[in-house]
Amino acid sequence: MAQNPADTALWPAPHASGAVDATVHVPGSKSVTNRALVLAALASEPGWLRRPLRSRDTLLMAGALREMGVGIEEGVGPDGTGEAWRVLPAGLRGPATVDVGNAGTVMRFLPPVAALADGPIRFDGDPRSYERPLNGVIDALRVLGARIDDDGRGALPLTVHGGGALDGGPVEIDASSSSQFVSALLLSGPRFNQGVEVRHIGSTLPSMPHIRMTVDMLRAVGAQVDTPESGGERNVWRVTPGALLGRDLTIEPDLSNAQPFLAAALVTGGKVLIPDWPSRTTQPGDRLREIFTEMGGSCELTDYGLVFTGSGTIHGIDVDLGDVGELTPGIAAVAALADSPSTLRGVAHLRLHETDRLAALTKEINELGGDVIETADGLHIRPRPLHGGIFHTYEDHRMATAGAIIGLAVEGVQIENVATTAKTLPDFPELWTGMLGA
Ligand SMILES: O=C(O)C1=C[C@@H](OP(=O)(O)O)[C@@H](O)[C@H](O)C1
Ligand SMILES: C=C(OP(=O)(O)O)C(=O)O
User: Does ligand 1 have an atom closer than 6 angstroms to the CB of 285?
Assistant: First the structure.
């Protein structure tokens, strides 16, 4: 496919001349925004999303729901402050075409919504979206009563022939390649005639905090959900059929997108405050408090937010990231700058993320002089003195931010297509230079 000029543009990653000392307001969570949009669209009354993330992934989600008939209006929240989206649920209908881009949340969460619509909904997206696993959602929806035309690969592109309602009921899936299969079925489950009972039969299940986020957000809009943690069977989630409430929800900052800024404090021996860091959250990025502390920093959760301080020393780490896979690129970048080796485990499924993240991190860090070895389920990283060069990003937002972290400590790093951060953090270059006081 021909690349547009932005794809090949090089961004000189700023080199830090000293310790950072900054407050960084991180925009809303992608995962929370896209769940909130789906739940508000399926509700029986209007709802509000305050401080939603506006990035490629969330604008694709909003656009897709609008295509199916949902009203999403710009506005200020009910208390008159802050920008907000007002979501007006409506009878879902086709024919419609949904562009999923390369958003896992859009390609997985919306086919079950489309099965509830009246009419055909066609799903298409970026070339990479054809390679990302979707079989868990497609096969499950067929068992639950949906009619879907695909090319037999269990992936995009496809058409869901919505019948206006779906039977629902029990279904077995193997979600070892993506937790989003489970989340997708649970989110629409209250609107299926019999609800849904999802039984995961695979060997591993990544990203459990994201499944907890789905369950918590379902409960917050009035759904009844039984989970393994609430006394149910292991690997079984059950959603009772019922109407969903329209709520007024303020979206938390995206803690995974806070990662590069926290890493900057760690790498430069500086200090970063992230305002509005939630005291309780299901976001996987909250694990950074523990992981980056083990790697040499310290943190304090105050009334204003999270204050993270680097010590000037970075230690290697041996850690299973299966629950928090999306943090891997940023942790790998910091690990490449540490004083001892690191082993990152439990993330084989990252080979099917925005790009093959294990291959991409290995190649790009090694091309700067690093020593990274890909293992069966992760990376082994032995720090070595790095040098400048081009850091390719493979249309992966987290590769771009990982390269920027390395650039803080290594002169002459150029990030290819930093604009790819628009997937979840369109303002990244400005926030980054702002943090550095440039
Ligand atoms: O449900 C979600 O919002 C997400 C779940 C995870 O997906 P996988 O389980 O496919 O890794 C995560 O990596 C992704 O960034 C967001
Ligand atoms: C894996 C990710 O995204 P997606 O929602 O497209 O799966 C990610 O953001 O790291």
Answer: no
Q: Which residue, judged by its Cα, is nearest atom 3 of ligand 2?
A: 104
> Ligand 1: which atom is nearest the Cα of residue 179?
9
What six digits make up the tokens of 362?
A: 């290995």
Could you tell which of 353, 397, 424 is best to mutate to test the pocket of ligand 2, judged by most ligand atoms within 8 Å of the CB? 353
Q: Rounded distance, CA 42 to CA 400, Å? A: 34
Residue 271's H or E segment, with its range, is strand 271-275
Task: Please report, as a single letter, which amino acid is at residue 85.
Answer: W
The answer to whether residues 347 and 357 belong to one domain is yes
Q: What is the pLDDT of residues 204-259, one digit of tens each?
A: 999 999 999 999 999 999 999 999 888 888 999 999 999 999 999 999 999 999 99
| Shared-domain flag, residues 167 and 285 | no
Does residue 191 sit in helix, strand or coil?
A: helix
Looking at the structure, tell me whether residues 281 and 394 fall in a common domain. Answer: yes
Residues 366 and 288 grouped into a single domain: yes
Q: Is the ipTM of this complex over 0.90?
A: yes
Closest protein CA for atom 15 of ligand 1: 326
Please tell me if the CB atom of residue 227 comes closer than 6 angstroms to any atom of ligand 2: no
For 434, the token pair is: 């702002």
The domain boundary residue, chosen from 190, 219, 250: 250
Last residue of a domain, one of 250, 279, 312: 250
The single residue listed with the structure tokens 């032995």 is 382
CA of 389 relative to ligand 1 center, distance in Å:
30
The CATH number covering residue 413 comes to: 3.65.10.10
Q: Is the pTM of this model over 0.90?
A: yes
User: Which of the listed residues 326, 331, 424 should we mutate to test ligand 1's pocket, taking the one with most ligand atoms within 8 A of CB?
Assistant: 326
Shortest-distance ligand to the CA of residue 284: 1
Backbone angles phi, psi at 353, to 5 degrees: -85, -155
Between CA 404 and CA 408, with CA 405 as vertex, the angle to 5 degrees is: 90
Q: What is the pLDDT of residue 75?
A: 85
Number of domains in the chain: 2
Do residues 240 and 294 share a domain? no
- Which positions of the chain have pLDDT values less than 70? 1-7, 77-78, 81, 438
Q: Provide the annotated binding site for phosphoenolpyruvate.
A: 30, 104, 132, 180, 357, 398, 423
Domain coverage including residue 262: 5-28+252-435
